[in-house]
Design brief:
- The protein is of the alpha+beta class.
- The chain has 3 helices and 3 strands; from the N terminus they run ααββαβ.
- Strands 1-2-3 form a 3-stranded antiparallel sheet.
- Strand 1 and strand 2 form a beta hairpin.
- The longest helix is centred in the first third of the chain and has 46 residues.
Amino acid sequence: MIGEAYDDSGQATVEFALVMPFLFLFSLCVVQVGSVVNDQLALNHAAQVAARAISLADIDQSSAQQVAVTAIERTINLRQIQVDATLDDQFAQIELRFDHDVNLPIIGNFMNDVSLHASATMPRQLVTSD
């Protein structure tokens, strides 16, 4: 019938019920991406701090690794970071690798762990005594 009105009082509830799981998954993805970006920024900062620490220190290649690890541990609280420190007469270089675990419910089943990398190079700035 042409002029008949339909009762659509539950339509918004049904639409909300259909859309809600997708909104929930989207919000979990946003949280996970934010966590990965935060860890990447922290890793970049730690690489710069460690490179600066070994560039200013009067040490040799054998001590550079330990100085870098100590500087990183004081800077960020990420654990199980792989540190590779290289030191020569002119430059101090740090390469960091960290595997970020994707451990959020539901999202963790669809995403693999993310491998993060950061590196920094600084010129040596040895202080000379006059």
